[in-house]
Every structure is written in C-alpha cells, then in structure tokens.
Design goal:
Elements: H1 12-15, H2 21-29, E1 34-39, E2 44-52, E3 55-63, H3 64-71, H4 80-96, E4 103-105, H5 116-126, H6 141-145, H7 147-150, H8 158-162, H9 170-186
Parallel strand pairs: 1-4
Antiparallel strand pairs: 1-2, 2-3
C-alpha cells in the first residue's frame, strides 16, 4: 500500500471492490428510483431502491427463487428465462408500490448486450415500468423463452429433469409461468 502525505485511502467498499462511487453518485443525482439487478451463482435478484440520507430503502424486491415457490417455475433460477421472469415480477411489484419509472443499476457487472441483467431489464420494461434503455441490448425472444436450451440435448441439462421438467419443454413452461405472473399482477 502506498504511503506518504499525499496518499488518500479509498473508501472501504471501493477497496473491497463492492461499490463504484462515481457511478453511484450519477445514479443518486438523477433522483429516480433504481432498478438494481444482481445475479448470484444460483439466482437472479432484482430490487427497486430509493436513496435516503440514512441509507437505501427497498420499495419492492423479487428473486428467481420466488418464481419456484409462488409460480411453480421448474427451470434453473440463474438462466436467462428466470432473469426475464424476475424482471417481469419486479416490474409489477414496483407498479404496486407506486413506482412508474426507474433507472438501471447493474453494479460492477460488465456491460454486455444480451446478458441476464438485460433480460431482467426487458422483463421490467415489458411489465410497464419506464426504464431508459436501448432495444439493442435485450436478448432475443428465443433466448428469453429458452429455445436454445430446448434445442440442445446435452447432458448438462439434467437439473431440469430432476425438477420434473424436460429441457425441450422449457419454452412452454416459460409461457405458462409468464401467464401466471401476468394474470396475478397484470390484470389489476
């Protein structure tokens, strides 16, 4: 670590690689709620946050684990389909909480078009949440529905069979779960 009279120690969360304060400041200055999308090794997490002086306040939250518990989703909780459905769910929950618009906060993730973060963003936009974005970054509809998994018969998709779902049936199952979410939240 550098020393000397001119050395300034970075904030702890910056040193730990958890927060980009320049990006966070830009998001906070906008004074809009943030759509925070994070992906872990097993699920996708989406939250609507507002910044307060005492700390961020969560207005709505959704996880891909919630899809399995509430809507009977049998697919993987970390794939593109689950990210889209989680985004759709957070969009509807945000509207119930009175949030009509938000800005995307993807944290320290690399900005890559077609990623799961953008699949969640597409779900939120499809639910009616206003988020400024370009259509070019969204994954294709075939990828969101899981057509790429259904067309692949590789043995790496055995987790689906353990959950009682054949990989070839994922697009139909996706449409079924999307219909359940839309009927529960979208018809209001």
């Amino acid at each position: 670590m550098a020393t000397g009279p001119r050395y300034k120690v970075a904030f702890r969360r910056r040193r730990e690689g958890k927060t980009d304060y320049h990006q966070r400041l830009k998001l906070i200055v906008s004074r809009k709620p943030r759509l925070v999308v994070r992906r872990t090794s097993s699920q996708v997490i989406a939250q609507i946050l507002v910044t307060r002086p005492e700390g961020d306040k969560v207005l709505a939250a959704a996880t891909s684990a919630e899809l399995a518990k509430t809507f009977g989703y049998k697919g993987s909780g970390k794939n593109t389909s689950a990210a889209y459905l989680t985004g759709l769910l957070i969009g509807y929950k945000a509207q119930e909480a009175g949030v009509e618009e938000a800005i995307l906060d993807m944290g320290l993730r690399e900005n890559r078009a077609g990623s799961r973060v953008y699949a969640a963003l597409k779900g939120a936009v499809d639910s009616g949440l206003e988020v400024p974005c370009s259509e070019d970054v969204f994954p294709s509809d075939d990828r969101i529905r899981g057509e790429h998994i259904a067309g692949n018969t590789a043995s790496k998709y055995t987790q689906y069979e353990k959950n009682g779902l054949k990989a070839a049936d994922l697009p139909a199952h996706f449409d079924e779960v999307k219909g359940k979410i839309t009927s529960q939240y979208g018809a209001k």
